[in-house]
Every structure is written in structure tokens, then in C-alpha cells.
């Protein structure tokens, strides 16, 4: 496959070429040509997170994955599926089975979701993309096709490179196929929603944990200018969901619905806002300043920064285990340390040197300018 000239761009960085391979083999041919020409490479799926992280220092070639689509295999008896990376996550339908991976951004692709390790409310019960991924096909920067993991849930052979590629922001190679474990679609679900005074939030969250109702998600929405709302998702058999939801309804003084509140599983920032991912110990969720939204049961929340953004970001980093700026307008992004302190950054640099010695894949996009 030959490269096509373009005036397209990635996060404001102008590219010279674009290619849209439809198979792993076509993608390998593209990357072989790029390697021979010394081209820097950026990967793009649906573009829902294309402005996340730092912009690449250069991007001679954009590899568009939107033709790498479709379900390669669905082994219902083994509860696994093999999906091409450009497939929209919200288009997947496995009948009585599900890939229990929420995407807060409609239209996001499988590959992009894995590349930045996004997940939504149900990460509490089912885990993140890193947890659900059991195998992966990646083309390394030198065009070598690499496969890791397998097509059985209990596969333990070889190195689990899928964990390494998950969350690497496209800096180590091009993901072309993913193997995921599936779960049965629950027979019933219910959302228990309640408004909680800020002073009572810690006690209410502790009470939810103590009630042992095995929620699939416990989300909070704490806007800067309004009351805090807690929403708990219960899934399972019809009888079990009814009983557990009734217990929570009584505990929280809330309401039960078959549908989530409008904010559930969404990010709290507008398209041109400053979006931050915050990680905090469960015991300190209630101590975070207002304006956060996300999982009160895993300590992964998100917020939209306004006003004195550097000062607010510094305050968040002082209160949390980490606060990573996911997205920001260029005028703001250039003034911020997007990642903050990153433990193990020197190890990450060595991994980058090993997998991409010429630093041609999304150079500078990851933490520490990797």
C-alpha cells in the first residue's frame, strides 16, 4: 500500500502522508515503508481522544484505523472475542454476552480505548480495558507483527505485552486486533439515585460498601454549583436486583429507575475544556473539592478546571494520588505539566528505547516527553 499525500493534522501538528490499511498485513506494509523512509507516525481512529496527552513533536504519517473494523471471532463457549482495532466500541453486539467496557465518548474505537486505557462506571465490577484484554496483535515500529496472549481466558503463555501496550498512547506500536474476555448480559439492572449533602458523602459511601449489594458501579456527580448526586448500578437476576435495589433505596432515601441519570458515565468538561483524570484513595474521595464526577468506589474521578487552572491543578495534585490533564486547549496545554509526577518514568524511557529506538511513534506524546 502506498502512502497518500495529505494536509491533515494531529493535535495541530501537520502531517505529510496518510494511510488507511484494512488488514494487519496492509498496516505492516505501510509501517515498513514508513520505517524505510524514517517517517514519524501518529495513529488515529475515530479521533475522539486525538487531542489527549501532549501533541507529538512531529507526525509525518497518519495511520487511520477506521478501515480496520469488524469482529474476527466470537467464541461464545469460551466467552472471548477477537475485534479489529478500528471497530467502534458502541457498535459491538454479542447477543447474550457483552464486552463490559464503557466508553464515555460515543464512537470511540476499540484500539483507541485500549491505547489510552479509558473505562467507565462498570470498571468497579468488570475491570478496565487492561483487565478485559487477554490478547493483542501489534505492529512494532520496524513493521514486525507481534502477537501476545491468547484466545482463552486462562492463557498464561509468554509475556503479557497487552498490559504494556494498554495506555501507551500509541507510542510503542500500532494495535490492529484485540482479544477480550466477555461476560453474560445480566437479566436485569436498576439504578438507585440519591442526593447527598457534602458533609454526609463519606458516611453514605461507607454505608453502601457495608451493605454488600455487589454494585456494578458507584458514581458521584459533585458539580461546583449544586448538590452531590450518588448513583449506584445493580445488575443480576430480576429478583436479586429488586431486593438489592430496595435495600439501597431505603439506605440512601433515593429513587430506583431502569435508566441512569443523564450525567452517568460522561465526562464533566465541554469540548474545549480542561479535562483532568484524578486518582484518590477511597477514604479521601469525599475530601476532593467540588466539581468532580466519576467512580467513588474505585477512586477514579474526572473534573473540569476553570479559573486559575495552574493553581487548581496544583491543589488537586496535593490532595490526590495523581491528577493527569487529559485534554486542554493549546493555549492552556502549553503552560501546564500535563502528566505531573510519574513513578517509574525512567523505566518507561527504557521501554520506549527498546520498542521504538528511533522514537518515530508519536514522539513526545507520552509522559516525560516519551
Task: Compile the SSE list and pairings.
Blueprint lengths: L3 E2 L3 E2 L2 E2 L2 E3 L4 H14 L3 E4 L16 E4 L6 E5 L4 E5 L12 E2 L11 H7 L6 H4 L2 H4 E7 L5 E5 L11 H5 L8 E8 L1 E2 L3 E9 L4 H11 L5 E6 L5 E9 L1 H15 L2 E3 L16 E6 L12 E4 L4 E6 L3 H11 L2 E6 L2 H4 L11 H11 L15
Parallel strand pairs: 4-6, 5-6
Antiparallel strand pairs: 1-4, 2-3, 7-8, 8-12, 9-13, 10-11, 10-12, 14-16, 14-17, 15-16, 15-19, 18-20, 18-21, 19-20
Helix pairs in contact: 6-7
Protein name: Glycolate oxidase
Keywords: FAD, Flavoprotein
GO molecular function, one term: catalytic activity
DSSP strand tally: 21
Look at the helices and sheets and give the structural class. Answer: alpha+beta
Beta-strand content estimate? 25-35%
Q: What is the spatial order of strands in the main beta sheet?
A: 17-14-16-15-19-20-18-21
Instruction: Summarize the main sheet.
Output: 8 strands, antiparallel
CATH class of the largest domain, named Alpha Beta
Integer-rounded radius of gyration: 21 Å
Query: What is the total domain count?
Result: 3
Shape: globular
Uncertain residue ranges: none
Domain FAD-binding PCMH-type: 10-185
Protein name: Glycolate oxidase
GO molecular function: catalytic activity; FAD binding
Organism: Winogradskya consettensis
Amino acid at each position: 500500500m502506498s502512502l497518500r499525500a495529505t494536509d491533515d493534522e494531529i493535535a495541530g501538528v501537520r502531517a505529510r502522508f496518510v494511510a488507511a490499511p484494512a488488514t494487519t498485513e496492509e498496516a505492516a506494509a505501510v509501517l515498513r515503508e514508513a520505517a524505510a523512509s524514517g517517517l514519524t507516525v501518529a495513529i488515529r481512529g475515530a479521533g475522539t481522544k486525538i487531542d489527549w496527552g501532549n501533541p507529538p513533536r512531529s507526525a509525518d504519517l497518519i495511520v487511520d484505523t477506521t478501515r480496520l473494523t469488524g469482529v474476527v471471532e466470537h467464541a461464545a463457549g469460551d466467552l472471548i472475542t477477537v475485534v479489529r482495532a478500528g471497530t467502534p466500541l458502541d457498535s459491538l453486539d454479542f447477543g447474550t454476552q457483552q464486552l463490559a467496557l464503557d466508553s464515555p465518548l460515543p464512537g470511540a474505537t476499540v484500539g483507541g480505548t485500549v491505547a489510552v486505557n479509558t473505562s467507565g462506571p462498570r470498571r468497579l465490577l468488570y475491570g478496565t480495558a487492561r483487565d478485559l484484554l487477554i490478547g493483542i496483535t501489534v505492529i512494532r515500529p520496524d513493521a514486525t507483527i507481534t502477537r501476545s496472549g491468547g484466545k482463552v481466558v486462562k492463557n498464561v503463555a509468554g509475556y503479557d505485552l497487552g498490559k504494556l501496550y494498554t495506555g501507551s498512547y500509541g507510542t510503542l506500536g500500532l494495535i490492529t486486533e484485540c482479544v477480550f474476555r466477555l461476560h453474560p448480559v445480566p437479566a436485569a439492572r436498576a439504578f438507585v439515585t440519591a442526593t447527598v449533602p457534602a458533609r454526609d458523602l463519606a458516611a453514605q459511601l461507607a454505608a453502601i460498601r457495608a451493605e454488600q449489594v455487589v454494585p456494578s458501579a458507584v458514581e458521584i456527580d459533585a458539580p461546583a454549583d449544586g448538590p452531590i448526586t450518588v448513583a449506584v448500578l445493580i445488575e443480576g437476576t430480576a429478583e436479586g436486583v429488586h431486593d438489592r435495589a430496595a435495600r439501597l433505596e431505603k439506605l440512601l432515601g433515593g429513587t430506583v429507575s431502569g435508566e441512569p441519570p443523564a450525567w452517568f458515565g460522561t465526562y464533566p468538561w465541554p469540548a474545549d475544556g480542561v479535562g483532568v483524570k484524578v486518582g484518590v484513595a477511597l477514604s479521601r474521595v469525599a475530601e476532593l473539592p467540588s466539581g468532580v464526577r466519576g467512580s467513588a468506589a474505585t477512586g477514579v474521578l474526572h473534573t473540569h478546571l476553570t479559573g486559575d487552572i495552574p493553581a487548581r491543578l496544583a491543589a488537586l495534585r496535593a490532595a490526590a494520588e495523581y491528577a493527569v490533564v487529559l485534554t486542554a486547549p493549546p493555549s492552556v496545554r502549553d503552560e501546564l505539566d500535563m502528566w505531573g509526577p510519574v513513578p517509574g518514568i525512567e523505566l518507561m524511557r527504557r521501554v520506549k528505547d527498546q520498542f521504538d529506538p528511533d522514537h518515530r511513534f508519536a514522539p513526545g506524546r507520552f509522559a516525560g516527553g516519551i
